[in-house]
Amino acid sequence: MTKIDMCVDLNGFKMKNPVTVASGTFGFGREYAEYVDLNQIGAISVKGLTLEERQGNPTPRVVETPMGMINSVGLQNPGVEYFIKHELPYLSQFDTKIIANINGNTIEEYCKMAEILSKTSVDALELNISCPNVKSGGVAFGINPDMVYKVTKSVRENCGKYLIVKLSPNVSDIKEIGIAAENGGADCISLINTLIGMGIDIETQKPILARGSGGLSGPAVKPVAVRMVYEVTKVVNIPVIGMGGIMDYADAVEFFLAGADAISVGTANFINPKVTMDILKGIEGYMERKGYTCVKEFVGKLDF
Amino acid sequence: MKDRLFCKVLENIEIASNIYKIEIEKVEMLQNIKAGQFLNIKCDDALLLRRPISISYVETDRIGLVIRKSGKGTVVLCNKRKGEMLDVLGPLGNGFTIDEKEQRVIVIGGGIGTAPLLELVKRLEGKDVTVLLGYKTEPYLVNEFEEYVRDVKVATEDGSFGHKGYVTELFIEAIKENSAEMVYACGPEIMLKEVQRICSKYEVKSQISIEERMACGVGACLVCTCKVKAEEKGVKYVRTCKDGPVFSGEEVIFHD
């Protein structure tokens, strides 16, 4: 029997396997290190960073919906400098790729962060132009192709690292957003971020989340995510990391078949802290069953 | 490494209207439980998120949970039958701190907030303990508290049992009669706010266990934040699940 090779190479960004964890669902790795051997994860996208510390939104910040959850954390994070000093050294002890997810209010802030982080040992930057939970910046940059191009290009010029652009699904045509990111100089695209959603308490007649709306994630968004990965991978020539509601290996395989080169697990971590390992084993089992020796053999293999 | 644990339901009985006592098997990995810690429980395949449920008491072979049937998750939990398996993460959270030097303590619980105080009271053995329990109408767990503490007083809002009124009224009386070195409290926010005010007035230290909507339960997702006083910046957000659920009463800043 031929040995299965789980390594993936996303145009120079090499990971030991295609299973990564999504920003905002894994903190800075510390909490889950008690449950999972972080060395076994392909890459960790850390909690979204901003230039300065952010306290985030008031609570309630979460509401469960049918097979999903809406969060409104609002990018609570200790700031990029704190991350570099106190979290990065911890994460660096593990043999996994570290992706710094960056968020700015302005293009200048994105660039400044890219510049700062390019001098560190992070392996890649993930440009978050899709956070729905902040007043300025975030998703505002991600819904207009011209803005996506502009912010990606500016960051590209200040970034010495592999650059991933994370797309918002809250757009009318995801394809043109993907193309804009590629034209701006992205090395890779990750999608989807959360879909904007809302939940209402019918007794108080108020929104459940303190901020009204938030980002919907979990199995409820998976079909949207798979479709968007399919559409984007058809029109761009850079690698794509697919995510959105992946709960098990079968969900992950759907994303690969749709065209994703790697996948990211988010909300599922909350339910099963070891889920990444189950997904990894499941993908291996699928490959064995189908006779694949490397992941590339079934990326985009959708018969349609 | 830690993992999800699968525990068998050993017993489930309704001990008061909509209040269920569920005992689950204390599997080997469920060790070193502190009073005030919680389990994050996957109630059902149809419900995505786990539900944080405080540990009410711990015995050699079992863990007791006392749950108020209220939302979708607790409805499913309260319908679990003997023999069914529960998928739990835990024990999670910091739990109450017990200081050997403190001899005189007051424990105040309101409604379902009385549940986690039972294990605490067990572990306060040897101290001069007053337990004050408040309910809307129907009391529960009173006998269980009385097994460990002689001085247990009950308040009900409608006067159907014990003092008519709020448990915080009993608290003021108790503190005036014999102040305490530490106050432990768990209950609705309105009660905790009042406990906080009274403790500040009478200059008594307190530990309060708070409740917040959670997702991961392990400190990663940051949805369950609680506002506390911070030295430099005035306020900071901490994680109810990981840094709490027990906080020093002086530091918690409640919603307005």
Keyword list:
heterodimer, A: 304 residues, TIM Barrel, eight-stranded parallel barrel, four-stranded antiparallel β-sheet, globular, B: 256 residues, alpha/beta, Elongation Factor Tu (Ef-tu), domain 3, Rossmann fold, Dihydroorotate dehydrogenase B (pyrk subunit), domain 3, seven-stranded antiparallel β-sheet, seven-stranded mixed β-sheet, 5 helices
Tally of helical runs of chain B = 5
Q: What is the average of the pLDDT values of chain A? A: 95
CATH topology of chain A: TIM Barrel
Taking all Cα atoms into account, the compactness measure Rg of chain A is: 18 Å
| Cα end-to-end separation of chain A | 30 Å
Quickly count the domains of chain B: 3
What multimeric state do the chains show?
Answer: heterodimer
**Count of distinct structural domains of chain A:** 1
Shape descriptor of chain A reads: globular
Count of strand segments of chain A: 16
For this structure, the CATH topology of the largest domain in chain B is: Rossmann fold
Quick synopsis:
The complex is a heterodimer of chains A (304) and B (256). Chain A is of the alpha/beta class and 304 residues long.
Describe this entry's structure for a reader.
Chain B: Responsible for channeling the electrons from the oxidation of dihydroorotate from the FMN redox center in the PyrD type B subunit to the ultimate electron acceptor NAD(+). Chain B: Belongs to the PyrK family. Chain B: GO terms for molecular function: 2 iron, 2 sulfur cluster binding; electron transfer activity; flavin adenine dinucleotide binding; metal ion binding; oxidoreductase activity. Chain B: Residues 2-98 form the FAD-binding FR-type domain. The complex is a heterodimer of chains A (304) and B (256). Chain A has one domain: TIM Barrel (Alpha-Beta Barrel), CATH 3.20.20. Helices cover 33% and strands 20% of the residues of chain A. Chain A is built from 10 helices and 16 strands. Chain A has helices spanning 30-33, 80-92, 107-118, 139-142, 145-157, 174-184, 222-235, 249-258, 268-271, 275-290, and strands at 8-10, 13-15, 19-21, 43-45, 62-65, 68-71, 97-102, 124-128, 162-166, 188-191, 195-198, 200-201, 206-207, 213-217, 240-243, 262-265. The longest helix of chain A has 16 residues, at 275-290. The two termini of chain A are 30 Å apart. Chain B has helices spanning 72-78, 117-123, 142-146, 167-177, 189-201; strands spanning 5-16, 19-25, 38-42, 51-54, 57-58, 62-68, 85-92, 104-110, 128-135, 151-156, 163-164, 182-186, 206-209, 225-230, 234-239, 246-248. Chain B is built from 5 helices and 16 strands. Chain B is globular. Helices cover 17% and strands 36% of the residues of chain B. Chain B starts with a strand and ends in an 8-residue tail after the last strand. Chain B is α/β, with parallel strands linked by helices. Chain B folds into 3 domains: 4-92, Translation factors (Elongation Factor Tu (Ef-tu), domain 3), CATH 2.40.30.10; 104-209, Rossmann fold; 214-256, Dihydroorotate dehydrogenase B (pyrk subunit), domain 3 (Ribbon), CATH 2.10.240.
